Amino acid sequence: MSDTTASPARTVTARGRGLRIALRVVQVLLAVFFAVASALPKLIAHSSAADTFAEMGWGTAGMYAIGVLELAGAVALLIPVLQSVAATALSALMVGAFVVQLTYFDGENAATPLILMVPLLIVARARRGHNEELRRLVRARVRRG
Questions:
Q1: Each residue's pLDDT tens digit, 94-122
Q2: Distance CA 77, CA 59 (A)
Q3: Is-above-0.90 flag for pTM?
């Protein structure tokens, strides 16, 4: 008789591979969202973004600054050594977005940043192993520098 059941080690390996793929898909979707849906309107001064920042009194400088931070975070989400740091930084940006939604816009879209924080924090936690590698790279650069 042949053994048709998978070994426990093979099942764990397959499950781990599936989780890594799912996490990577989440990272790519987050990167696309932050680059295209969030940063791009700010960086091209689309009226939807420009009007919002003007209403808050932040002007174009604030709009461009937030757009650049979002685009940088989106790109960094795709770079292995920066993934955890990028997800953490974007989470902090979402805390700011939440506060802005509550204070300037009466909480109209306050749930959006909170919803985005969930997958960002999952990525930050799951990819935290890269932080030590980043630390080593920065230390080596400082020593050479």
A1: 999 999 999 999 998 999 999 999 999 99
A2: 27
A3: no
